[in-house]
Amino acid sequence: MEEPRFTASFEKSVYAKVTRRLMPFLFLSFVFAYVDRVNIGFAKLQMQHDLGLTEAAYGLGAGTFFLGYFLFEIPCNMALQRVGAKRWLGPIMVVWGVVSACQMFVKSETSLCVTRFILGVAESGFFPGVILYLTFWYPGRYRARMVAAFMTAIPLSGILGGPISGWILQFMNGPTGLRAWQWLFVFEAVPSVIAGVLSFYFLADVPGKAAWLNQEEKALLEDRLSEENRLKRLEAPGHSTLLDAFRSPKVWLLCVIYFGQVMVNYGISFWLPQIVKDTLSKEPLTIGLLTAIPWTLAVVAMLVLGHHSDKTGERRWHIGLTSIVCSVAFAASALPGISGVLSLVALSIATASIVSSFSMFWALPTTLLSGAAASAGIAWINSVGNLAGYVSPFLVGKIRDTTHSMVPALLMLSFSCLVSGVLTIACFKTTRVKRAS
């Protein structure tokens, strides 16, 4: 029997080295991106009154971000594959930081929508770009764990951003004549600009271009990726070209599943501060601290479930059941007469479930697609799914304006998540990828 070219201990040490180099930087960059994307939920607590916005107008403005995101996501992901992550991700971080700060100048519903649209364009190349970028470094058996670690940035942005945003709103009114919500946009945009500059140091396009790896380490990484791509071509020879991503029924099904998950995620992200204000506290700092609770639980759930999904190699039930748990928790939070504390508990379970579900979700498309199909397919699924980021806050705002209640909105989000969970279980087979050692 032929001896393996690389030992298991050497492979483990190489992937640990790659993870230490890339993941903390990508993780922090996504924290900054997500804070810039959703801090409008806190700004709303003052901005809505100052600008005279209805709930629906706020929801429309918040969601317009995703129209720009949708229109430019696929071109951006194809551009990353062509020019490389190092020359692509850094500049767009700087651009979205500047645009996010410019939200301080909005004066009306129209200017809010325009600024949010441009911010969506600027951010559209980052998340799908990183998901694609990870396929240049990690084979499938590591990827769900890395994606889960990367996506813990979403709940961490709530843990950090909530209290910071609450503090700014409570204590930054008055200096230089600016309102606290304007300072919020400025202060929280600065880290993105700094990260964009630092990306030229931290990132390398592919293993072969990484100056911090020796030749043997580069060879192992390239060998593992080549072997995985060879197996993909043997198992699914028709899923490697650009058009194959759009011909695959499973890609369109994944779009629908992800759409339902994103409906819930942005229902939480854009409206949780308002729910807490309506049910538990009017103080901005207290609101910020309370909104950190659901996101803290989500961090724990993402890491535990992502690790278990990788350890067992199972995707279908992990994704489907967490979506269904989220649906039940949302429905529970909408029960008539439920106390503010119990509602926050239910929303915490819903948040942990849905964030865990869509972090594991991204292990599915990368097992079905390779080559140009992976680049376009990942971007297309994320583009269509993220249209829910436009639909969700607008519908919630419209429902609140019409009914003066969050109950119907929470039930709508519960149904969206239920559909995603049922479709995942019903339409995908239980397949197991080779587990990471």
Please characterize this protein's 3D structure.
This protein has a single domain, classed as Growth Hormone, Chain: A (Up-down Bundle), CATH 1.20.1250.20. The chain contains 20 helices and no strands. The protein has helices at residues 8-38, 40-51, 55-83, 85-101, 109-123, 127-135, 140-151, 153-171, 180-187, 190-202, 215-235, 242-247, 249-279, 284-312, 316-333, 340-361, 365-368, 371-386, 388-403, 407-427. The chain is globular. It starts with 7 loop residues before the first helix and ends in a 10-residue tail after the last helix.
Task: Give the strand tally.
Answer: 0
- The overall pLDDT average reads 84
Number of DSSP helical runs: 20
Q: Which second-level CATH architecture applies? A: Up-down Bundle
Look up the CATH topology: Growth Hormone, Chain: A
Portion in strands: under 5%
Q: Class by helix and strand content? A: mainly alpha
Q: Any key phrases for this structure?
A:
437 residues, mainly alpha, Growth Hormone, Chain: A, 20 helices
Q: How is this structure best summarized?
A:
With 437 residues, this protein is mainly α. It has helices at residues 8-38, 40-51, 55-83, 85-101, 109-123, 127-135, 140-151, 153-171, 180-187, 190-202, 215-235, 242-247, 249-279, 284-312, 316-333, 340-361, 365-368, 371-386, 388-403, 407-427.
Which helices and strands, and how do they pair?
Blueprint: H1 8-38, H2 40-51, H3 55-83, H4 85-101, H5 109-123, H6 127-135, H7 140-151, H8 153-171, H9 180-187, H10 190-202, H11 215-235, H12 242-247, H13 249-279, H14 284-312, H15 316-333, H16 340-361, H17 365-368, H18 371-386, H19 388-403, H20 407-427
Helix pairs in contact: 1-4, 1-7, 1-8, 1-10, 2-9, 2-13, 3-4, 3-5, 3-6, 3-18, 3-19, 4-5, 4-10, 6-18, 7-14, 7-16, 8-9, 8-14, 13-14, 13-16, 13-18, 13-19, 13-20, 14-16, 15-16, 15-20, 19-20
